[in-house]
Amino acid sequence: MPPKAKKGAPAQKSKTSEDEREEPLQAVVFADAFETTFVPFTLERPRCLLPLANTPLIEYTFDFLASAGVEEVFLYSGNHTDQVEEYFKKSKWTRPTAPFSLEIIRSNARSVGDAMRDLDQKQLITGDFICVYGDVVANLPMETAIAAHRSRREKDKKSIMTMVLREAGEAHRTKSQNLCPCFVIDPVTERCVHYEQVRPRQTPRLDIAEEVLKDHVEVEVREDLVDCGIDICTPEVLAQYTDNFDWQAPRRGFLYGVLKDFETMQLSVHTHVTSEGYAARVKNLQAFDAVSRDVVARWAYPLCPDVNMVADQTFQLGKGCVYKEDGVVLARSSVLGRKSVLGKATSVGEGSVIQESVVGRRCVIGKRVRLDGAYIWDDARIGDDTIVERAIVANEAAVGKGCHVHPGALISYGVRVADGTVVNGSSRITKAKRRRSSGAAQAGKATTDPKIVGEGGEGYELAVDDDEDEKLESLAPGDIYNMSNAALSDDSISTLDSDDEHESLDEDSKRRSSRSESFASINSDESGDTRRRAADFHHEATASIVDALQKNEDVNNIQLELQALKLSSNAEDKQVRRTVAVGLMKRIAGLVESGTSPKDAVSKTLSPNKLLIQRSVSTNKEEFSEQVEFLLYMQTDLVHRQQGDKILLFVCNVLAHDDLIEAEGFEQWWEDPRSSATEELAEVRKETKQLVDVLVASDDDDDEDEDEDDESD
Amino acid sequence: MPAATVGQTPSLSTFVKSLKTNSIESSIELLASLLKRRQIKNSRQCALATAQLLLRVVAAERIKDPQKLIDRIRDVGRRLVAAQPREMAVGNIVRRILGVVREVIESQAGDDGSGSSAPSTPTSPAHRQSKRPMISHSFSSFTPLSHSAAMPYDMHPRPGTPMDSSASTVDGMADLAAPRRPGLASSASYASTAPQNASLLSFLEHPLGRSPAGTPPSRNSPRMTPVQSSTELNKEKIDIKAEVIDGIKELLDELEVVDTQIAESALDHIHSNETILTTTSSQTVQKFLSTAARKRKFTVIHAEAYPNDHEITHATILNGGKKSSGEDEEADERWKPLTALGITVILIPDTAVFALMSRINKVILAPHTVLANGSLLAAAGASTIALAAQAHHVPVVVLSGVYKLSPVYPFDTQELIEYGDPGKVVPFEEGDFMSKIDVQNPLYDFVDAELVSLYVTNLGGCAPSFLYRIVADHYRVEDTDLSAKTG
Amino acid sequence: MANEPFNIVSTYRRLLAEDEDLTMPVAAIEALIQGLANTPASTVSETLDLVSKLTAQLKQSIPNSISLSAGTDLFQQYLISNLQRPSDRGDFDQIRAHLVQNGKLFVERAKAARETIAGFGRHFIRDGDVVLTNGGSRVVGSLLRSAAESSNNRGSIRFKVIYVISPNKTAMEDESTANIAALRERDIPVATIPSTAVAYCIGQVTQCFVGAEGVVENGGIVSRMGTYQIGMLAKAAGKPFYVVSESHKFVRLYPINQQDLGIEQDVVDFRTAKGSVKDDEGAERSERDEGVADMEGKEGAGGKAAICEPHEAVDYTPPHLISGIITESGVLLPSAVSEELIKIWF
């Protein structure tokens, strides 16, 4: 029996269908999940058009919506909107015969929250609507869920949202390995009373508000649910987003918020747990891998390649889950193993072995090639004797003869890997130059790096900044699973998508472990949970600051945003301080890397943004601990920057100048054992010694240390 | 659990409802996507949906040239078949309707239009009556060989050119050939010469139509001068549509009553104190058995058809055919379960089939599709049963409406079998299971013709080796290859 | 009108010799038409009479007349059904003229039919199949060839062919070698085995295709010696066994067993030290030859030819071994053949 999209007792069914008559069922789709777990591919293509088993992701989502009887769809596309529109111009969804009306909304929303608020302003939503990401692969029966939601809403206007969740076992390949949502549900009312993200067998406890436990006779704590972000919302949800402008993510932002002030607002969120059908989000490369395999192995039936969702597809199912389109040319001695997909007009050379792999259209697979769990997208070419394991080779990319692409490697659009190159698992090779500000790729060719792609190749290893370096080294090399973390880059950090949180969180915790010595004293007191939240906060906030600085936003806005973040994840001042420190340093370092002299960089960055520091660092005379902390944070951060020492020097100089930090502050900092805990730290602060000495010695001879600066330039 | 079938019931009925409102094109799209999503499944529902849709299409078509109509229907058919090649009922219905259209056209061209369009009460004898004239009137035109004259023209473009072009040529030839045959027949002293001309001899006879001087391929037969044909068409234009619609209505009636018709012969096949083995929750079989149960006492052993069908099967055994009916909700007559009729029903797992076979007098199966060569596709497990039956020399009776009978020759049986959701076998929750082990869940089995002893259709019983005749009576050769995918 | 220069037999042979693509039935029809052409027959009965005479000659003088009789019967029946129409009197000359002129056309059609069948065959052969076939049936050859060619537009069909080669070098041999060469040309791997090895390799075969000289009324076929055993082996191994044949090879003949084919072929030749046991048969045959001789001129050659050479010996494969008969108009079950024949004759 295939999963039925139309389901539920006839009574309900007919009822809902009538409802649909009176108010059209609407849906909001976020084509861009505001994260970059798919870098480098998302540098050049919108994520929702990435091919899953040779069918663009968005097709699955729309098919799901269509089968759920949706009549109006609003598609929020983040970057590459042109490509998205281009695609839909041609697709069947914009034809008059399409099951629903599609409206593509261009927006510069940087998070789901923004989009929601924008939607609220536009006044497009009339009634209940389904809210999904553009990467959902699902055939869940929605009928019952919608019916239940509506009946609830009729009873109680305060029940504003129903989350549709799929039961799945303990470990599931479509689930995130390291962090899973934990819902606390009242089984009677199906109300979600508490939500937290826990990491299995690590989170010691859930902190459930005791009144919750008071109110509810019985609660279920469920960790086995796949949450693929399918929510049935009332317009009220939008209003809520607008009211709380700091809510960004639907789960950690919205849900968390609503649950937190349930006492005051009395708004309730319900869950609909189903054990039928298939549901998964292709939220990162790990999920991409897992879902691809589900689809090919027919777990998502009937959403399998041989359904030929896109008009011109001609897949036919062969023995052992082998799907072939017309015009596939297999050499006589080539072997097509189980669970493989071959697109139209692809040719496979003599003696090649393909298994558990997805090969796009018009690909040319050479002789004696071995593809094992590989994902080869359209028009790619694989040279003779090459081995590609669980890795992705994107459109028009070419891998030369006798190469070995290790599991986890990502070879982006149009990259050429020269003959005989070995591509290791952690590398993400692309040709597109990435701009820090947004995911949008500029056409500008980046310099080819022969070390990566071999002589005569094209493309370079995607630049990774230090956070990522740490991640990469902290990850077991290879294996597509881990790429989900590895692929996290700073242009994603400005966004607050729940899944992004997973990633950032993971790497952040890892960073802690890697730097425990430097932070031991500061964070030693934090419990696992608060520490986690802190981690999230820090990561997000830093990112947003850096971002803002790049855009030279008005300092007040930055401050505001920071404040908002602080509130939303009730962070402590200490964290804010750290954030500001790291943020500023990062920005400065960035400038320095891009060639400006440390001095200019510092002055350029600090002078307009003094406010930040003032806010985060109290300058009252007797309490210097904050200042010390601030300096420490800067110092520790600068350890990893190039010319960290110089920067530190100038920063200190400026700070001293503007009396943002008192001489005593400097003194105490200098005394502080933590500031010289490791030799890097000592190394970094060496340059500054003179300055400090001078400061400590006397506050009156500024000109002198000016000179010193000049000398040290 | 009940959802398992209730799920489909709305999807068919909602589709039928939407037909009234939607535009033709979007209904076609809708049906295609419903088929793709398997929201309409099982032969009966597909048949109903297709017939309804085509009824709508024909009704909407402004028929200037019947050829246009044929092409149109073909085109729609092709799209539907492409959407779900394994639901052969779709293709069958399309072919049936094409047959009706051609029938009408020919009866227009030939003088006797009455036979085919005679309204008929849907009881089976009446059906035969209404069929007889059209069969005899251009008897041979149905037989596989009839168009050997036309075939070469049909087939030449085949290797290479896309289907539709050659398809149109088929029709072209067919229409050239079609009116001629009755013409000759009428001029002939005894009607049976007409078939001759169209049969083996055709490859000699064909050029006869042409004037001796003419170089054969280029020129039309004198009887088919465009002028005249156009005049013919003019007078067709009025009633051809009406007649085609009648034809389709007739078809729909047939679909409605097919079970009753099959059930009529129940008493000939089921005798007192027999032990009958059946599987799945086929409505046809249920009706068949319950009809027999009114007069006779026997025992039914019911294999549960795990994993795809067992829930419905249980439901059926427990409380009658309704749940399994798959009818659209208007027709929801819920007949009593067999047990209520005093029949002993024994439910067994599929694995016990062989062990029990020695005690069985008759196996009754309901196919998913019956293929031209007498073999059939049925719910997974049927093959096991058939083989077990053969081993114990137990007769296997297959109950199949004609609409399940497909002219498609099973070139590759593997291709016809659909693989379903492995989640039925191992629940989706078993995360590590599904990541480690390949699970497969074929929905259908292929049962070879020689394992089947008898087919009972709504036209009566017939041996597998005789099925080709029924196929020939119901489908036109030129329609057999609707689209490249049907194979 | 018997004694006139036109010699049906030699014409027939000539036609076959000229165009090796010609099948025997068609050649026979051709011959008859030419016969008509050279004979000023004016009335229907006269014509029919002539045709039957010619046919008789032909059948007599050609050792294995099964295949060609298909053609002659077809032709006669056609004349009867068309000429004997009271209304069509006027048509007589026209028909005759038409026949005489369009002789070639029939040949074209016959070949067209073959192409058609080849077109069908494509569907039968799937990726990874191993096809077993025997001898040089032209239809089978073209079928396999088209399958090999179609691989480019329908995606690659990777199939192999096992050719059963009869041990003794003959004309048929060349046929099959030609086919084999053609297939290998299109890089289809072909193995050639002696008929003794069929049982050995039937296991790895996925289906069998054989040609036929004639398809008889009960759906069985008359075909080159050895086909029957392939059929039995295929049945035993549960492999589909397809006959490929144009529908003009259908013969009105109902053989009970191998000896019942109505043609002389001394395959089973019992010998003692004194030599062959069946001299008497030889004797009666010789006098039949005289009968032929006085009817015809110098038919000695034909007389000697009247015994099948061992290489063109045929056997009869009963219908229950046949999974399907692939004709230009689709795949027939053996049971459908009789109906087609009946339609001509009654």
Automatic annotation (TrEMBL), chain A:
Disordered: annotated span: 1-22, 428-457, 492-534
Domain W2, first and last residues per copy: 531-705
Residue ranges with Acidic residues bias: 497-506
GO molecular-function terms, A-Z: guanyl-nucleotide exchange factor activity; translation initiation factor activity; translation initiation factor binding
Keywords: Cytoplasm, Initiation factor, Protein biosynthesis
InterPro entries named in the record: ARM-type_fold, eIF-2B_epsilon_N, eIF2B_epsilon, LbH_EIF2B3/5, NTP_transferase_dom, Nucleotide-diphossugar_trans, W2_domain, W2_eIF2B_epsilon
Domain of life: Eukaryota
Cell compartments where the protein resides: Cytoplasm, Cytosol
PROSITE patterns: W2 (PS51363)
GO annotations of cellular component type: cytosol; eukaryotic translation initiation factor 2B complex
Family designation: Belongs to the eIF-2B gamma/epsilon subunits family.
Protein name according to UniProt: Mannose-1-phosphate guanyltransferase
From TrEMBL, chain B:
Summary of subunit composition and partner proteins: Component of the translation initiation factor 2B (eIF2B) complex which is a heterodecamer of two sets of five different subunits: alpha, beta, gamma, delta and epsilon. Subunits alpha, beta and delta comprise a regulatory subcomplex and subunits epsilon and gamma comprise a catalytic subcomplex. Within the complex, the hexameric regulatory complex resides at the center, with the two heterodimeric catalytic subcomplexes bound on opposite sides.
Protein name: Translation initiation factor eIF2B subunit beta
Compartments, as annotated in UniProt: Cytoplasm, Cytosol
Lineage of the organism: Eukaryota, Fungi, Dikarya, Ascomycota, Pezizomycotina
Superkingdom of origin: Eukaryota
GO cellular component, as recorded: cytosol; eukaryotic translation initiation factor 2B complex
Family: Belongs to the eIF-2B alpha/beta/delta subunits family.
Compositional bias annotation for Polar residues: 217-232
A single GO molecular function term of this UniProt record: translation initiation factor activity
SUPFAM superfamilies: NagB/RpiA/CoA transferase-like
Biased composition annotated in UniProt, kind: Low complexity: 110-126
Positions of region (Disordered): 108-141, 150-169, 206-232
Pfam families: IF-2B (PF01008)
Keyword entries, A-Z: Cytoplasm, Initiation factor, Protein biosynthesis
UniProtKB/TrEMBL annotation, chain C:
Highest taxon above the source species: Eukaryota
Metal-binding keyword on record: no
Keywords for this protein: Cytoplasm, Initiation factor, Protein biosynthesis
Region (Disordered): 275-302
Compartment(s) where it occurs, according to its Swiss-Prot or TrEMBL record: Cytoplasm, Cytosol
GO molecular function annotations of the record: guanyl-nucleotide exchange factor activity; translation initiation factor activity
Chain intervals with Basic and acidic residues compositional bias: 275-301
Entry annotated with the keyword rRNA processing: no
GO cellular component terms, A-Z: cytosol; eukaryotic translation initiation factor 2B complex
UniProt record similarity statement: Belongs to the eIF-2B alpha/beta/delta subunits family.
Oligomer and partners: Component of the translation initiation factor 2B (eIF2B) complex which is a heterodecamer of two sets of five different subunits: alpha, beta, gamma, delta and epsilon. Subunits alpha, beta and delta comprise a regulatory subcomplex and subunits epsilon and gamma comprise a catalytic subcomplex. Within the complex, the hexameric regulatory complex resides at the center, with the two heterodimeric catalytic subcomplexes bound on opposite sides.
Name of the protein in its database record: Translation initiation factor eIF2B subunit alpha
